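[User]
If only I could read backbone structure tokens as easily as an amino acid sequence. I have put the entry right below:
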Amino acid sequence: MITEPRVKKPAKTSKASSSSEVVARINKLQEKLESIFESRTPVIAEALEATMEGVRRSLAGSAKPTESSVLSSVVDELGQVIARKLQDKFSVEDSFRLAKMRGETAKLEILNEVGAMLALQQAADVLGVSKQAVHKRLQKQSLFGIKYQEEIRIPAWQIRDAEVVPGIGEVLKNLETTDWGKLLFLHTENMQLEGRKPKDLILEGKSDLVAQLAAQFGEQGAK
């Protein structure tokens, strides 16, 4: 009897071998993700979350999703993230709220530079005049005050030895801007004054120089 030679069948790839390859790739991916997360960037986290959600969706639709279906789900999720970001950027309410917060923060920073502030009656007591007289000085711009929450506050540095510092009136009259603009001008370092604050020069008796600069500041604000 002639025995036919046995034909060797090609060895099948074992499931164990395939599984180990997948595990190895996942471990490698995990290492990369850990290095990425060290940056602690919210945008990266959102992008990764969207990617994972896209993969989950594709798996929910099929036990063995195709490459194109997985990529399509991921792209769709990333598109939704971008759409939300754009909506946030164009949100009028959020923009207004953020602008208001920035404005309030800027005011706080200015006030920190101003120093002590006096109420109307306190300024009147220091000057030895009536409250009405102080109010009149404010109206004539021979003294500067700013209104906040229905009350007027006067930077205390303007009063020395029971008198208003000379020259402050001329500077104020040249400042054609808002009260907050005046506060900013007086208490911010100015390159044209070699990095010094206008209020410091006024206290040194150099109000003429500051008045000239104030006129330029007012002209720029009007343009």
Remarks:
- The mean pLDDT is 79.
- The chain has two domains: 29-89, 110-222.
- The longest strand covers residues 151-155.
